[in-house]
Amino acid sequence: MSLRLSIQPLIPNHKRQAKLLALRPPRSNFYRPPKLLTVKSLAGTPDPASPVKPVWEKMLSTAASLYPLYVTFGGAVACVKPSAFSWFVERGPASYSFSLGFIMLAMGLTLELREFFSLLRQRPFSILFGCVAQYTIMPAFGAIVSRALALPPSLSVGLILLACCPGGTASNVVTLIAQGDVPLSIVMTVCTTLAAVLLTPTLTKMLAGTYVPVDAVTLSISTLQVVVAPILLGSYMQSKFPAIVKVITPFAPLLAVSSSSLLASSVFSENVVRLKSSITDASNFGIQGIFSGDFGVAVLSVLLLHFAGFFVGYLSATICGFRERQRRAISIEVGMQNSSLGVVLATAHFSSPLVALPPALSAVLMNIMGSTLGFIWRYLDPSDMKNGHKTKSD
């Protein structure tokens, strides 16, 4: 003890501190963000806690994220050569229902219920707000636009049906591009999709029942069959057969967006002949004549509906004090609908083919509008430090 006391002062203080620091483990120079619970989706959103994906999986995810290009290309083919989709159209509406069921099954296969419910517990307010905004803003503007443009009854029903549909899975891809809150977007899509069993038929009957008779019970049963049941089946398969699902999952997003593009393009091709005759008849009267026909007024109504969804969704989230990333996610989720569901319900439950026209047009126009907005936001810093006021963390 005496020897230690006699030697200790001989070592300078700064050298002792240097030796102690040398014994400590080195600090990493890399920033490690807090672990955030995420839910996988058709968007192919990467989980930071998961191992690095192989190159071929990254290629599949990238290919799936090009959904807006696929549906736009399909729409162009439908305009030039409608007969290219005749093999699929002739088997409708059964082929339409099967395609949508497959899309929802793919969502279920990539949905981890444990992470889903954990995120619900962590951020209940923002999720609830997004879901309420989805089923209030869009249905209200669907009714407003249809009345303001004095749409024919069939187009009014189609537009309102589209407005009452849940958020589409393409919104997850666009939110990722826009640097928005992707987990929030994914959970809102799932929640609004599950709620569609009751809300889509009920709201459609309330808002469109004055134009044509609407059987809310039949619509509800169809929504349950082609949307909710496949999602639950996919989630069940994931929990019971994880090894098989692990092999299938990388291919699910690309197959789902391909099915969605085929579905939208096929329904659009059904109306091309009628639309071309409408344009030909109206072309003699100039631009005003074109927009007075079924084609022009349908395009205008769909554009106005989605613009209102994007704008009012963002505005309402801003007023309620959400952060910029959440505002973007809510705006995109509200503005982008599940047009495939609208197409299936329109073809299965309404006799007029014009009812399916707004959802079919939406599949093309909505993705062009959403993708454009996403790429604009991609180059704008979403940091809340620029907002200059306190925002909600939930």
UniProtKB/TrEMBL annotation:
One of its GO terms (cellular component) is chloroplast envelope. Keywords: Membrane, Transmembrane, Transmembrane helix. The chain crosses the membrane at residues 67-88, 94-113, 125-149, 155-177, 184-204, 216-236, 248-268, 295-317, 329-348, 360-380. Its main location: membrane. Gene3D superfamilies: 1.20.1530.20. It is found in: Membrane; Plastid, Chloroplast envelope. It comes from the Eukaryota. It holds the Pfam family SBF. It is a multi-pass membrane protein. May function as sodium-coupled metabolite transporter across the chloroplast envelope. Belongs to the bile acid:sodium symporter (BASS) (TC 2.A.28) family. PANTHER family: OS12G0170300 PROTEIN, SODIUM-BILE ACID COTRANSPORTER. This is Probable sodium/metabolite cotransporter BASS1, chloroplastic isoform X1. It comes from Phoenix dactylifera. The lineage of its organism: Eukaryota, Viridiplantae, Streptophyta, Embryophyta, Tracheophyta. The gene is LOC103701285.
